[in-house]
UniProtKB/TrEMBL annotation:
NCBIfam families: PRK06853.1-2 (NF005322), PRK06853.1-5 (NF005325). One of its GO terms (molecular function) is oxidoreductase activity, acting on the aldehyde or oxo group of donors. Keywords: Oxidoreductase. This is Indolepyruvate oxidoreductase subunit beta. Residues 13-190 form the Pyruvate/ketoisovalerate oxidoreductase catalytic domain.
Amino acid sequence: MSKVKSILFVGVGGQGTILASKILSQGLLESGYDVKMSEVHGMAQRGGSVSTQVRFGEKVYSPLIEKGKADIIVSFEKSEVARWLEYLKDGGHAVVNDYEIHPVPVLIGKESYPEGVKEKVQGEVKNSIFVKAGDIAKELGNIKAQNVVLLGAVIKALELENMDWDGVIERLVPKKAVELNKKAFRVGMDQVK
């Protein structure tokens, strides 16, 4: 593969955005790709925006994704995708967690949660996949696994499912959460047709 692929992960602090990016990066490295990853924590501890950028291919010179160049945007919270759509290239994919986290201004009634995000994204991005990752993770036993549900969907969308993802999850996820995350990963892949 000589073409570089660019994946932008966006979410809210505490959703596991960075761990999902690390699992993806490690799996790609172990499969022989050149990988670069950049992370921005922002106000992560206060529920603020978090983003990571992963680029991989035969040779990657920079981890940074320019506007209009992301092959995939992975949004861990529904409204976050709207903030980052300008980074998606024409024909790119959006993998979105159909899950809402209301920021403090919304919770105290100073602002309203954005309406129509799903419809806007589906109207602008032909290749959009909405996954109820939060609900799926709750059903599996822990909402914290929503990040790995989304990662499974991304792996399937990228057609990279034939790598040793179970092994990577075993090495990067705390031992007590390994089996849950393996299940979450498989269910996430099943969300993409």
